[in-house]
C-alpha cells in the first residue's frame, strides 16, 4: 500500500508542472505536485525575467551613449555596477515571490516537498521515504545548464545563467561560451553595460538562425558590441586569478566566464528505466508532441523536460495538454499546437516564426537599414524575411532581426496561425510612420511572385523606405 495515492502525480513545480496540475484538477482529477523546493519557475528565478532586467539596464546605457545622435549630449556617463545588479535581484525576487505566492495558494494536500523517482510505471519513491501510487504521471522537471568538463575546474570564475545574476558587481571582462539565445542575450547586455566581452562558439551560426541573410545582419550588429569568435573550440585554464582562453593559436584573459552551452532536460535521478519505456542514448523516451504521452504508457512529459520547445508559453501549453491527457488516459486528445514562435531579446530583437522554406515557397525581404521610422529613431539596422507557400501565397513563416520585431512577430504569428496570405495582410491598415510599414516591401515581393491581387486601392504609395 502506497503512502500517497492520486489520479495524476506531477513531478516538477515549474511552468509546465503548474499547468499540468491545474488542468488535471480542473477536469476532476485528484492530484499531487511534487517538487523539492517550490522555488518558483525558471523564467522568474534564473531565466526570462532577470535576463530582461539586465537587458533593460543595458538598453538605458546604450541610449545615453547614442543620445548625441539627436544633438543631446550626456557627458560623464557612469554605470554603477553594484546598483545595476542589485536592481536585477530586487525585481527578480519580486517576480519569483509572486510565483511562489501562487503556488502556496494551491489547495491543501496537493504540494509534496520531495524528490521523486520511478519504481514502476505508476509508482514513485520519494526521498523522504514515502511512496506515491498514481494512475498517471506527468514529468515536468525542467532543465539545467550543461557545463563541459574543461570549464568545471574554474571555481567561482565560472558563471551560468543560474549564477550570473548573483554577481555583486559587473565584471571587467567576460568570455561567453556559447552563442545560443542565452549566451547572445547576456553577452550583448554585458557589453552595453561596459564589460569587455568576447563570445565563442563551435558553430558558425549565432542563436540557431536559419536564414543566411538575417544571420549576416545579426552577426554584423553583434560584432559592434563584442568580439565574435565563431567556429572555434576555446580551451580554458586558470592563470593569475583570471581565466585564460586559448583558441586557434590566440590567447586572451578574462575576469569571468559565462558558459551557455545548452540546458539539457533534468531526467537523471528519475530512474526512467523502471518505467519500461524505450529510452534513447540520452536516456529520453519518445514523446508525442500533440499528446505529450511517452510511448504508450500513462506517463507524460512537458516543458523543458522533453527538450522539444524550451519556451515559457510552450511549456504552459504542453503542461495543460499533459494534464488533460493524464486524466483522460487511455482516451487521449491530440491537440493542434500553436505556430512555433521564438524571440531572442537582443537589440534589435531576433524573431523566428513558423516554417522556413518549403518546395515552391516564395520569400519576400525588407531591409530596415533604410526604413523610415527606424531612421527617425536612429535604430535603422535589420533584415526581415517572410515566407509564403505557393500557389496562394499564404504565410507560413518569418525571420526577423529588426527594431520592433518582438511586437511585429505577434502580428505575423497571428496571421500565420489564421492562414492569411500576403495580400490579406497588405489590406490591413499600416499607420505612417511606423516600424510595421517596413513589412510591406516583403509582402509586396511575395504578391508579385505568386498570382495574388495587389490591394492598390488601400496602398497609396508611401515614401521610399517606409
UniProtKB/TrEMBL annotation:
Q: Which cysteines does the record link by disulfide bonds? A: 43-48
Give EC number(s), comma-separated.
1.8.1.4
Gene Ontology molecular function, alphabetical: dihydrolipoyl dehydrogenase (NADH) activity; flavin adenine dinucleotide binding; NAD(P)H dehydrogenase (quinone) activity
Please state every residue range assigned to the domain named Pyridine nucleotide-disulphide oxidoreductase dimerisation: 361-442
Q: Where does NAD(+) bind?
A: 178-185, 262
Q: Where is the active site?
A: 432
The record's Pfam families line, in alphabetical order, gives: Pyr_redox_2 (PF07992), Pyr_redox_dim (PF02852)
Domain of life of the source: Bacteria
Q: Which residue numbers delimit the FAD/NAD(P)-binding domain?
A: 7-319
User: Which keywords belong to this entry?
Assistant: FAD, Flavoprotein, NAD, Nucleotide-binding, Oxidoreductase
**What residues bind FAD, as annotated?**
52, 141-143, 304
Cofactor(s) listed in the protein's UniProt record: FAD
Coiled-coil annotation reads none
Please name the top-level EC class of this enzyme: oxidoreductase
Instruction: Give the cofactor binding note.
Output: Binds 1 FAD per subunit.
* Family statement drawn from the similarity comment of this UniProt entry: Belongs to the class-I pyridine nucleotide-disulfide oxidoreductase family.
Enumerate the NCBIfam families for this protein. PRK06292.1-1
Entry protein name: Dihydrolipoamide dehydrogenase
Species of origin: Salipiger profundus
Amino acid at each position: 500500500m502506497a503512502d500517497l495515492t492520486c489520479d495524476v502525480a506531477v513531478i516538477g513545480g515549474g511552468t509546465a508542472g503548474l499547468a499540468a496540475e491545474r488542468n488535471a484538477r480542473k477536469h476532476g482529477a485528484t492530484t499531487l505536485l511534487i517538487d523539492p523546493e517550490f522555488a518558483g519557475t525558471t523564467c522568474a528565478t534564473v531565466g526570462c525575467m532577470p535576463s530582461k532586467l539586465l537587458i533593460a539596464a543595458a538598453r538605458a546605457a546604450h541610449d545615453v551613449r547614442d543620445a548625441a545622435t539627436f544633438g543631446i549630449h550626456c557627458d560623464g556617463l557612469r554605470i554603477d555596477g553594484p546598483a545595476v545588479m542589485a536592481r536585477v535581484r530586487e525585481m527578480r525576487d519580486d517576480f519569483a515571490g509572486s510565483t511562489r505566492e501562487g503556488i502556496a495558494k494551491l489547495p491543501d494536500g496537493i504540494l509534496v516537498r520531495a524528490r521523486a523517482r520511478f519504481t514502476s510505471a505508476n509508482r514513485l519513491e520519494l526521498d523522504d521515504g514515502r511512496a506515491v501510487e498514481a494512475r498517471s504521471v506527468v514529468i515536468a522537471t525542467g532543465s539545467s545548464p550543461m557545463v563541459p568538463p574543461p570549464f568545471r575546474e574554474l571555481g567561482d570564475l565560472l558563471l551560468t545563467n543560474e549564477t550570473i545574476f548573483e554577481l555583486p558587481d559587473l565584471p571587467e571582462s567576460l568570455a561567453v561560451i556559447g552563442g545560443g539565445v542565452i549566451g547572445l542575450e547576456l553577452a550583448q547586455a554585458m557589453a552595453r553595460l561596459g564589460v569587455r566581452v568576447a563570445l565563442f562558439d563551435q558553430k558558425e551560426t549565432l542563436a540557431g538562425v536559419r536564414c543566411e541573410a538575417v544571420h549576416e545582419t545579426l552577426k554584423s550588429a553583434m560584432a559592434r558590441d563584442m568580439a565574435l569568435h565563431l567556429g572555434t573550440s576555446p580551451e580554458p585554464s586558470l592563470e593569475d586569478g583570471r581565466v585564460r582562453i586559448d583558441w586557434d593559436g590566440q590567447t586572451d584573459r578574462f575576469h569571468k566566464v559565462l558558459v551557455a552551452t545548452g540546458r539539457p532536460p533534468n531526467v537523471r535521478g528519475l530512474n526512467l528505466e523502471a518505467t519500461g519505456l524505450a529510452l534513447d542514448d540520452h536516456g529520453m523516451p519518445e514523446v508525442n508532441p500533440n499528446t505529450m504521452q511517452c510511448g504508450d504508457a500513462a506517463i507524460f512529459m512537458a516543458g523543458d523536460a522533453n527538450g522539444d520547445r524550451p519556451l515559457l508559453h510552450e511549456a504552459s501549453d504542453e503542461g495543460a495538454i499533459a494534464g488533460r491527457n493524464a486524466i483522460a488516459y487511455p482516451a487521449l486528445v491530440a491537440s493542434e499546437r500553436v505556430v512555433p514562435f521564438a524571440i531572442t531579446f537582443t537589440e534589435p530583437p531576433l524573431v523566428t516564426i513558423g516554417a522556413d522554406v518549403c518546395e515552391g515557397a516564395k520569400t519576400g525581404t525588407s531591409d530596415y537599414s533604410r526604413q523610415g521610422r527606424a531612421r527617425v529613431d536612429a535604430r535603422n539596422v535589420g533584415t526581415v524575411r517572410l515566407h509564403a507557400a505557393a500557389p496562394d501565397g499564404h504565410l507560413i513563416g518569418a525571420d526577423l532581426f529588426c527594431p520592433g520585431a518582438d511586437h511585429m512577430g505577434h502580428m505575423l504569428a497571428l496571421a500565420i496561425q489564421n492562414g492569411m496570405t500576403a495580400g490579406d495582410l497588405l489590406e490591413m491598415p499600416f499607420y505612417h510612420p511606423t516600424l510595421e510599414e517596413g513589412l510591406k516591401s516583403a509582402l509586396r515581393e511575395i504578391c508579385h511572385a505568386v498570382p495574388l491581387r495587389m490591394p492598390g486601392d488601400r496602398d497609396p504609395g508611401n515614401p521610399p523606405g517606409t
